[in-house]
Amino acid sequence: MVRAGLTSAYVSGVSSAPLPAIAIVPPAVGDIPEKKTRRKHRYERVGWVPFVLCHCIMLGAFWSGVTWEAVVLGVVLYYLRMFAVTAGYHRYFAHRSFRTTRWFQFLLGLAATTTIQRGPCWWAAHHRAHHLHSDTEKDLHSPRIDGFYHSHVGWLFAGNGETDWKRVQDLAKYPELVWLDRLCFVPPTLAAIATILIFGWSCFFIGWTVSGVLVWHSTFLVNSLTHVFGRKRFETNDDSKNSLLIALVTMGEGWHNNHHRYMNSARMGFYPREIDLTYYCLVVLEKLGLVWDLKKVPERVLEEGRRADAERAA
To answer: Which residues, 6 or more positions from 154, have their beta carbon under 8 angstroms from its beta carbon?
Structure first.
């Protein structure tokens, strides 16, 4: 069954010729299993040990001290890296919701690798699989199936380190993106070293590490909590919900039920009152000529949402 608004054609961001459509067919309502005994997963040390160590590194701030420069750098890097994930990895690479040049495409991917969420092809492939199997046993990070811990961070270390290249053939044709994917830990390592050499240890511990960990957990909340808490405007075939709080800390990603209703849109806050900082930034970049063809939400979907809100308020 293909629900209206979910069949997705991922269009090349650097060519006027459309690529073959990649259909994402969500599960039928009856296919979503009831909550049952959670599966047991084996978490690989090669993944979770470095993850834990990154959290421990933050304690170095007690040795270096905290400076205003470090705090300012942390705020700046938080929003820059959050935008790289939300606009780059998510809305561009996973959903192709706007178009851009090849060099800016690479820049988005390069910036997003500094969040240490692997490469653009890996991220897009796993996210497309999530939409295909959302809240079923094939979903990699469903709190309905596997609970909070696994959907928040555990799934990252449960044997999911390989890129499913068949899901991202539209991205795999760019050698520079394949390079970023295979050497995804090189850019953040070099950026961390540069932070120490240019700004000092306090900026490394606070400006780089603390802000990076906050970016991790803020984006992970979209997987773990927006399928549990919030308001469900649209009747989708999963547990996705909208959350203003998560939207604020993730630059708009918290409007998750909206997104699961129509994932092709560059805007996740469908209505004016729904704050979506990523979309506002994309509009600015569009005016500067760096991106274009921002995909809009169809009027039929907006009207569907208005009716749902009116019925709820009645």
So the answer is: 41, 43, 146
Q: How many domains does the chain have?
A: 1
Express each pLDDT in 179-234 by its tens digit. Answer: 999 999 999 999 999 999 999 999 999 999 999 999 999 999 999 999 999 999 99
Q: What is the pLDDT of residue 91?
A: 98
Q: What are phi and psi of 222, to 5 degrees?
A: -65, -40
What is the domain range of residue 194? 47-313
Asked if the structure places residue 296 within a domain, the reply is yes
Q: Is the dihedral of CA 303, 309, 312, 314 positive or negative?
A: negative
- Nearest residue to 124 via CA among 163, 161, 153: 163
Residue 109 resides in a domain: yes
Q: Are 266 and 91 in contact (CB under 8 A)?
A: yes
Query: What span, in angstroms and rounded, lies between the C-alpha atoms of 118 and 185?
Result: 7
Which residue(s) pair with 100 in the sheet?
291
- Calpha distance 17→10 (Å, rounded): 11
Is the residue at 252 inside a domain? yes
